[in-house]
Amino acid sequence: MKPAVILLSGGLDSATVLAMAREQGFACHCLSVDYGQRHSTELAAARRVAAAQGAREFRVLHLDMNQFGGSALTDMGLTVPTGGVATSGIPITYVPARNTIMLALAMGWAEVLGADDLFVGVNAVDYSGYPDCRPEFIRAFETMANLATRAGVEGHRLHIHAPLIDMTKAQIIETGHRLGVDYGLTISCYQADDQGRACGLCDSCRLRRAGFEAAGVADPTPYR
C-alpha cells in the first residue's frame, strides 16, 4: 500500500477525504494541528475518526497561532458570527495562513515517509469565502511543493489531492455515507462545547445541517 498523508481536522469533510483515500488503497497517515483553536474537541474527534477508519498512524502537531490572533477561531476577544452564512467578503473566521501552514507541515511529513500523495478536505463550493480553499491555491501549493522538496527535485512528484473541492456539502455527505463514514464521530462547529455539542448557528453548523437535509441523510450532530 502506498503511503499518503491526510490532513484530518475532526470535521465532516476531512473524515470523508480519509475514507476516499482508503478506498483508493492508500496507507493513511493522519495529521491534525493544534493551532490554538477555540476548542480541542475537534482534535479528539480527529483521533476517533482515524481509529474508526483504520488509519496507519495519527499525529497531532502543536502550533500556537492564537499568539497572532486575527481570527474568531483563535482570538477569544472576537465573536464567531451566528447570523447566517456570509455571502460576500472574507469572514472573521478565516485563520490567516492556516491552510498554507498545515499543507507545509503535511508536505514535510510526506517527504520523510516517502509519500507522494497528500490529501486535504478543502471545498470551494459550500464554503464561507476562504481564499485558501480555492483550486488555484491548491495548484499553486503543489507547484511550490515540487520546487521546495528534495523529493520533488529528484523526480518523486508530490500530488496534492483535494477531492471535495468542486462538491456540494450534500454530495460530500452522500459520498461518505456510501463509504461508511460515521459522521457521529465528527465535529464541525466553530464553537463546540466541552461535550462536543454544536451551537447550530455558526456558518459551519448551518452548512453541515443543510448538507444532511439536502442529502436525505439523518444528521447525527448533537446540538446544544
From TrEMBL:
<comment type="similarity">
    <text>Belongs to the QueC family.</text>
</comment>
<dbReference type="GO" id="GO:0016879">
    <property type="term" value="F:ligase activity, forming carbon-nitrogen bonds"/>
</dbReference>
<feature type="binding site">
    <location>
        <position position="205"/>
    </location>
    <ligand>
        <name>Zn(2+)</name>
    </ligand>
</feature>
<dbReference type="InterPro" id="IPR014729">
    <property type="entry name" value="Rossmann-like_a/b/a_fold"/>
</dbReference>
<feature type="binding site">
    <location>
        <position position="202"/>
    </location>
    <ligand>
        <name>Zn(2+)</name>
    </ligand>
</feature>
<feature type="binding site">
    <location>
        <position position="199"/>
    </location>
    <ligand>
        <name>Zn(2+)</name>
    </ligand>
</feature>
<comment type="pathway">
    <text>Purine metabolism; 7-cyano-7-deazaguanine biosynthesis.</text>
</comment>
<dbReference type="Pfam" id="PF06508">
    <property type="entry name" value="QueC"/>
</dbReference>
<keyword id="KW-0862">Zinc</keyword>
<keyword id="KW-0479">Metal-binding</keyword>
<comment type="function">
    <text>Catalyzes the ATP-dependent conversion of 7-carboxy-7-deazaguanine (CDG) to 7-cyano-7-deazaguanine (preQ(0)).</text>
</comment>
<keyword id="KW-0067">ATP-binding</keyword>
<keyword id="KW-0436">Ligase</keyword>
<dbReference type="InterPro" id="IPR018317">
    <property type="entry name" value="QueC"/>
</dbReference>
<keyword id="KW-0547">Nucleotide-binding</keyword>
<feature type="binding site">
    <location>
        <position position="189"/>
    </location>
    <ligand>
        <name>Zn(2+)</name>
    </ligand>
</feature>
<feature type="binding site">
    <location>
        <begin position="8"/>
        <end position="18"/>
    </location>
    <ligand>
        <name>ATP</name>
    </ligand>
</feature>
<protein>
    <recommendedName>
        <fullName>7-cyano-7-deazaguanine synthase</fullName>
        <ecNumber>6.3.4.20</ecNumber>
    </recommendedName>
</protein>
<dbReference type="GO" id="GO:0008616">
    <property type="term" value="P:tRNA queuosine(34) biosynthetic process"/>
</dbReference>
<dbReference type="GO" id="GO:0005524">
    <property type="term" value="F:ATP binding"/>
</dbReference>
<dbReference type="GO" id="GO:0008270">
    <property type="term" value="F:zinc ion binding"/>
</dbReference>
<keyword id="KW-0671">Queuosine biosynthesis</keyword>
